Amino acid sequence: MAELTAFAYQPGVSILHRLDVRMKLTLVAAASLISLRLDFAGIGLLALPLLGAAFGWRRSLRVRAGELRWIGLLLAFVFAARVLTADGTPVFSVLSLDITREGLREGALVGLRLAMVFLVGALLMAATRPAEIKTGVQWFLRPLPLVPAERVGTMLGLLVRFIPVIFEEVSRVSEAQRARAVENHRNPLRRAVKLGVPIMSRICERSDRLALAMEARCYSERRTQPALRASRKDWVWFGLSCGWLAVLLTV
């Protein structure tokens, strides 16, 4: 099911669910940028409240652990690329390639930073309806000249809604290929082609069907948007979060 992915909205009544979407988008952008400058200690402190919020949805943690393996593979690739390309003091060698102490440290740091960006984005989509994200993006873009805020918001809203669909298609194709023993092929390039081509084909087909359905229903970019209201509690939590991020910059 598409709604069971880690990047789909999960109903709830937590503080993150109730927070104004404009503040969420601001905090997500700030946390993502700050995480790229933090060291191990700062990343650990930033991860504490994020992991606390993630464990608030314990019912879907098992599903997410299985579906996040692709992100784990990406993080492993980034780690390996950084380890194999960084200069420094050699620790050991693998296939005539020197693994340095600096490379291990930088690879782990880059991987953790990227993992924080993924975690922040996943929490935003898990705690915010796509319609609210679309409205918040339009609110930020509307004052900018020559920027079609409604069109950009519509594109982003469709993208957020389509991410669970992509994970659903990946899961279906993977299960079908496991049933046909495709994973037993020794050639990794052939396995990648066998997996990638059907996924792209199915995603393009669903995109075409979605576009036809929107045209048939006379979809318009100018629609009634959810009301944006920031309460006093929202401003309090927003101020505390900004203060916490400012403290992290000094770590």
Give structural notes:
By secondary structure, this protein is mostly helical. It has 2 domains: 149 residues, no CATH class; 96 residues, no CATH class. Helix content is 69%, strand content 4%. Helix 2 packs parallel to helix 10, helix 3 runs parallel beside helix 6 and helix 8 crosses helix 9. The longest helix has 31 residues. The relative contact order is 0.15.
Any chance you could write out the topology, listing elements then pairs?
Blueprint (H helix, E strand, L loop, with lengths): L14 H4 L2 H15 L4 H15 L6 H7 L1 H17 L4 E5 L2 E4 H27 L2 H12 L7 H31 L8 H29 L15 H17 L3
Antiparallel strand pairs: 1-2
Strand residues, percent: under 5%
Strand order of the largest sheet: 1-2
Distance N to C terminus: 42 Å
Q: Could you tell me the radius of gyration in angstroms?
A: 21 Å
The average pLDDT score comes to 79
Structural class: mainly alpha
Give the total of domains: 2
Please trace the helix and strand order, writing H or E for each element: HHHHHEEHHHHH
How many H/I helical runs? 10
Describe the biggest sheet? 2 strands, antiparallel
User: Stretches where pLDDT falls below 50 for ≥5 residues?
Assistant: 59-63
Shape: flat
